[in-house]
Each structure stands twice: as C-alpha cells, then as structure tokens.
Amino acid sequence: MASIFFLIFFTVLLSSFRRGADLLSPSRVFILVWSFVLGLTELKLSYLQHEWSFQSWIMLLIGPASFLLGIFIVTVFNLDTTMIPVEEMRVRIRLARVSESRFFAVLGFSVALYLLSYITIYLVKGSIPLLSGDPAAARKEFSIFGIGVFLNSFTFTLYFVLMYHILIKGKPGRKWVLKTLVFVSGGTYILLLQRFQIVMAGVMCFSLLYYMTDKIRLKTVVGFAAGLIVVFYWISSVRTGELIQYYLYTMSRMKYSYHYAFLTEPYMYLVMNLENFARSVDKLESFTFGYYSFDFILALTGLKHWLAGYFTIDDTPFLISGYNTYSAFWTYYRDFGVLGVFIIPLILGIGVGRIYYSLRREPNYEHVTAYSVCMFVMVISFFNSPIGFLWFIYNIAMMVLILKAIRLPKRHLSGRIPDYAT
Description:
By secondary structure, the protein is mainly alpha-helical. The chain is built from 17 helices and no strands. The chain is globular.
C-alpha cells in the first residue's frame, strides 16, 4: 500500500511541472499532503503502529474522498470558466490600491492588542511557558478568559505586514517600524510554544508570496514543507521535555537502527494521527454531537469545560502513545459518525473550491487571503481541524475587519488594468 500512495504523490508532484499548472490548486495540495502521510504511515516503522481493519480504512478514507468530491463538483461547474494564468494574477493583484494610512494604523493597533494581552497575562500568571520549569503545563495555563484570545493576533498581524510590504510602494520608515514590531511579536510568541498559530501564519504568508510575487518556486515548496516539520518537531520536543533522540527512539519502539534516531520524532508526528484515528474507529461507542465541531461557541459561552466534566468527555481516547491527535476528520466522525465525516468534508470541499475559482476568475488580495486560510486548513488536515477553535474564528473575524478597513472606496480608484496575452 505504501508504494501506491507514494506513486500517487510523485505523479501529482510531477504534474506541477506542467506548463500553466497552479502549484497550489486545492486538489493538488490536498492529494500531496494525504498521499505522502498515508505512504509514510503504511511503512509501519514503529511497533506502536498496527494493521488497520477494513472498517478503519473505510472511515479514514471517507473524509478525504468526500473533500475531494466537493472540489470536483465545483470544478465541473467551472469547466467553461476563463481561468486567469497565475503570472497574470500576480500582476493584477499587485495593482490593487489600499488606504495606506488605515493599513498602517490597524497593524499598529493589532500589535498593541497582542502585546497588551501578553503583558497582562504574564503579570497575572508570573511566568512564560518556555522559561518556566514545566513548559507543557505552563503553556496550557498561560491564558485568561476573555483576554487570552488576543494573543492570537500575532497570526494575522504577520500576514498583513507581509501584504503591506508587497502592496505599498515606498514608505521605508513605516516598513521598518512594522518589521521591528513583527520581530518583537514573533520573538515573544515563540516563547508560548504554540504551534498551530505559527504554522497558520507560515502557510498563509507562503500562499501570499506565491500568488502576489514570483519568489516561490517548487524548490521553495520543498524547503517550506521541511521547515514546517522542523517547527513541529522543535515545539513538541520542548513542550514534552523529550530532548534526547535516543529516548524518543526507544519510547516510540522504532524498527530501524538507533543510528537513525533523529528521524523518529518527524516520522511519528506525521503518522500517529492516522494511527490514532484507525484505532479509535474500532473502539468508539458513542458520539459527541457537535461538542468539537462547535468548540468556539462553547468556549465563548463558558460551557466547554462544564460540559466536558458533566459528560466525562475524554479529548484523547484510545491513545497508544504520547501523540494525541487524530487528523481533521476525526472531529466530524466523533461528533456525528459516518454522516458527519461525509457531509461536513463535502461542504468544506465545495467551499474551498468556490473560493479557489473566485481567486482564479477575479484575483485580488481579499480572495488571496481567503484561499490562504483554505491552504492552512488543507495542509494541517492530516493533523487536526482548526475550524472549530476559538483562536481560528478570531483570526478569521479580524482578517475580515482589516480587509474592510484598508479597502478604498471605488471613487478613489483610477487607472486601468492592462490587457495581457493569454
């Protein structure tokens, strides 16, 4: 099975070299991620892994297949749509005009909001996760209800600072100010040992650079993917305190020689998500009916922890190791069973497809931002689903507000987009 998944991976990867191909099209990105992870999982390099039952395979593949089906449905409806070439998209998007003064002001406000929440929580809690005696525990406790959500401002701030540098001509003084603010924000945020938000910022910035500049090439993609794995590995190692490679190798019960122990954490971090899903499908006896899919609503109302205690909900059931995630589609399966793991990914696939084709028909910085969020959801789907989390919803809401704030009224727009050969 591993050879089949790797064959799919390399076939899709080679198709990226075709003239006019969009390297970041949704079906290509999603298939690359899932075929690669499934191929690695099927190598079964750890004794913690097991052979999956037929039911486990079916339930695991329904989610990805349904998501791709949603994209395919949108593709069929857009067969006659004129697709603007990526090279032309980059020129058109960079021609966009925004309110520079409002753009700079909202970015300054975003950084101030982040730093104010950071300092407030530090003064209350008295320590920073990375510098504490127990980083894993301190990471979970570094928050205050109602204020902690503003720590997540770092994600959209980094993205929009990059957009500011691409869209705004001149203004070297203001750009240096923003660079300094991002450096300070990034340096302090790393100390919190939060992984999702950093990866979201990275994926969105990567997508922005791809669709608005000509700086991204295939080799950059490979380097970026490797960088993401390193970030996950480093943060996980610091958080758990498992800094000795041989210890990780032993605890993970790897089948290969300890001379390759450095591969243990990246490998296990990629494959154990699907292993946990496959194992849990055979054991799950009841569903949670939206508890995880609508996590942000329960978090806002303060009901999340009360419900977890009342119904004795275990976030990580049936684990076989210290790796405690199950892939994005586990969320929908655990909440609603087969119906959830089919319908919700189908809707998500249709949504991602519609956003992508809107970008290809009418390229602008708003559509780029929307699709950059979709890119993050697809890249991280083998690991977890961020869609229901409060920090994710907060980032989406803030990005919508910022895009509205920097938009110039039509009466201020002038000039004509030049014609291009297609």
